[in-house]
Structure formats: C-alpha cells, structure tokens
Amino acid sequence: MGELTVAVDYNASSPPQSLLERLKDYGQEDAFSLWDELSPEERQLLVRDIGSLDLPRIDRIIRCSLRSQGLPAPSIEPVPETCVSTVEQRTLEERERWWKIGLKAILEGRLAVLLLAGGQGTRLGSSDPKGCFNIGLPSGKSLFQLQAERILSVQRLAAQSVNEGSAGFVPIQWYIMTNPFTDDATRKYFESHKYFGLGPEQVTFFRQGTIPCISKDCRFIMETSHGVAKAPDGNGGVYSALRSSNLLEDMAMRGVRYVDCYGVDNALVRVADPTFLGYFIEKSVAAAAKVVRKAYPQEKVGVFVRRGKGGPLTVVEYSELDSSLASNINQVTGRLRFCWSNVCLHMFTLDFLNQVANGLEKDSVYHLAEKNIPSIHGYTMGLKLEQFIFDAFAYSPSTALFEVLREEEFAPVKNANGSNVDTPDSARLLVLRLHTRWVVAAGGFLTHSVPLYATGVEISPLCSYTGENLEAICRGRTFHAPCEISF
Fold first, then answer.
1. pLDDT (mean) for 366-390
2. What is the three-class DSSP state of 260?
3. Can you name the residues that pair with 307 across neighbouring β-strands?
C-alpha cells in the first residue's frame, strides 16, 4: 500500500485532520497524543510513519487474529503412513529415479530456491544477519557461503547429467528474504563476496513486511514519541512479501514451477536437493516437507499432524501438543504416533504459492506472541503479530512428507555456544562427522591429534554435494583432521 500523502503544517497546534480522522476510525488516535511536545522535525517523522501504515489491513489482521484465538482447535490425528516416504522404505532404484527427475527439472530451469534469511544473529552474540555467521569450520565459511556453493554444486551436477557441460543450462534463481533491519547488511555482504561465485542476476533480495506491535487493548505501542513500534511479520510473511514484490510473477516469467524453501540457520541444508525435487514431482502434490524423526517425546519441535477427520496435514507446535499424546507409541511401527518433526525444509508448486499468498491475505489470521516491546515508557508487555512458514500447509489439497536423517541434513544454529542444544559448535561437529564418513566411504584415511568425536574433515560443496565423486580425491590418501578438502 503506498504512503498516504497529506499537506501538513508542522507548526500547527493539532495533527493533520484527515490523518487523525483515519486513526479514529480504527481506535488508534492515541498515536498523536504527544503532538504538542514534538518538534516540527519529529512531527514530520510521525506523520510519515502513520501515513505509511495500511490501516484497514492492519485493523483487519488484529480483529481476525484475536477472533481466531478463542476458537476451539480441531482435533488432531497422526499423519497417515501413506503420506510419508520413510528412509527404510526407500529403494536404491527409487532414489536414483528421483535424482534424475530432479536434475532434469533443474536443468530446464523449473526450480527456484527461496531462502528465509530475515533473522539476526542476536542469540549467537552477533549483530550481523544470521547467514553471515561462521560456525567455526576449517574453511571459515559462513552459512550464506555454504548454501551458495551447494547451489553451484547442484548446477554442475545438472549440467554434467546430460553430458553437454553447461550448454543450454538455466542457472538456479535464488530468492533471499531479508527484513528491514538486515536487508542492507545482507546485500553488502553478498556484493563484497562477489556472490560466492554465483551470477548477481541469479540472486534476488526482497524484504519481509513489518506490522505494528499492539497493547492488550489493541492500541499501537509507540516506540518513540514520533514512531510506532513495529516487528517483522514472521517467516510466514514470505508469502505476502512475494506477492507484493511481484516475485511470483517473476518466477512464472522465468519458467519456474517448483520452489524449494528453507531457513538460513541449518548448516547441513541440501539446497535444491534433486532427490527431494524428483520425489515431489513424481508424487504430484502441491506441498511437501522434509521431516526428521522426533528424538524423544518432549523434544521441543513442531510436528506434522492431520487436522480433523480427513483434514489437511499441518504443523502443531510442541507447546500445543498434550504430553500424553506426545508420548503415545504406534504399536505397529514402534514409532511415536506424532513423530514427524518439521525442520523448515519445504517444497511448493508455484501455483500453490499463489493460492497461499491470496488465502493468507484474505483470512488475515496471525499468531499472537506476548513479548517485551521497546516503547516510549521503557519495555512494556505487548503483542507481536506474525505468520509462520508452515501456515501454508493448511491450504494444501495434497501434502507429502519425506523423511531425512538429522545427522545428514539438520544441523540447526540457534543458540550461542555454551547452550545445551543447536549451537555453532554442535552444528560444526555434525558437518565434520558427516564429511568424515564420506571420506572413509571413498577410501580415504584420517589422522587426528584430538579425539575423532571432537573433530573431522570438511569437504567443500564445490567438490561434492552428497558425498559423490570423492574417490579420485580421497582413495588411498590420508588427511589430518581438522582440515578442509577442496579442489
């Protein structure tokens, strides 16, 4: 929504009448309560800030979100076994078939990659965007660099799969969602690192939206006397941001039909995974997710469930899952009945993304999070409104789940070193251990001066995407851990 422009006398004793009337329509006139105390410059900032808000939309979101809070949640059922491809069920023939289908679609430019990179590394003790974080691998590479090089690696595999080098090859488009606080730093980081070998035309940055923070009585919280407190609208804001940036049309124009979507803070993410894409295409579903088996009943992860009888597959947060249900065992499989953890590795058709962007906008239901909000009166308890990436699944007519092993594909980087789980140290060890197994499988040997469980080797994504093609580099050679194996 474009900014509302009004002719304003910033020396006047009262705020512009038209803007004040609009605020009154939505019960938000308190935003101008300190007008008398503001300098002309501060008044200008306040009018610009209020004028930039899409008040009808924000009011609709607040009302719809509050109304949905009181509704009883539909009953949940476990995900039917038929919706999941488990690791033990998968045959070598299937894996090879999916890999080829995926590489062919990538070669034809059918796949785009969508990265949710809005977060700052605050919990890691860094003020930089989280993707700039270096988890301490021998190479010193950041999360952004590891992901960029995996895209380069997949592009090379796709080009080689038809024995024609890169002739006729369509580069993978990478869409990166930042937020207003990380956008500039993210762009500069990519520019200063020459896009890690990707073409600048392959990488598109766009910003997620923000939404005002509100008090318990639904009034805007003022961060300063001349500005409303706002927060990013959650990783689910990606859908409305894609819509308002016209990037869904951009994807369609480029011939994209499938979108691989993931979060920045996974050091083992297989970006643009051909096997997952091939599975997705063969299943002919609107949405799919990679899942890992829940480690133990009280693990703090959201799980996929079926909402209501025959309803869609959606995600229930761990805090919403009754502890007796969480501990329930399926007597046939021996697994927890609710065992498929959501790890933010998703695949969507472009048609479905259009449907979701419109559906979420129309329904306007956001999650309410009670948080300490910086305000003119110091920190105050209020509500942030946000959407989650998994809100999309409620709209999907068909969803498939694809089990992966956490030690191969899930190394979250969420907490500072010294925390119990999901630290840079734990993620680094997961990468080093996986790559060590690749080296040994390819006929290589390791020496190490510290215990092997505390170290390992790192293989550059430019050498190998999933451990393939390493014999020529590794067979009969000895590597001293920790080290990086690159070309």
1. 94
2. strand
3. 76
How far is Cα 343 from Cα 329, in angstroms, rounded to an integer? 21
User: In the numeric block, which tokens belong to residue 314?
Assistant: 């959606």
Look up residue 182 and give its DSSP letter: T
Tell me which residue of 431, 425, 401 sits closest to 413, measured CA to CA: 425
pLDDT digits (tens, 9 = 90+) for 204-227: 999 999 999 999 999 999 999 999
User: Please, which residues bridge with residue 386 across strands?
Assistant: 367
Residues in the chain: 487
- Conformational region of residue 214, where left means phi above 0, alpha means psi within -120 to 50, and beta covers everything else: beta
144-165 tens-digit pLDDT = 999 999 999 999 999 998 765 5
Q: Please determine, for residue 461, whether its predicted confidence score (pLDDT) is greater than 50.
A: yes
DSSP letters of 1-70?
Answer: -PPP-----TTSSS--HHHHHHHHHTT-GGGGTTGGG--HHHHHHHHHHHHTS-HHHHHHHHHHHHHHHT
3-state secondary structure 283-326: HCCCEEEEEEECCCCCCCCCEEEEECCCCCEEEECHHHCCHHHH
Residues 6 or more apart from 160 whose CB is under 8 A from it?
none
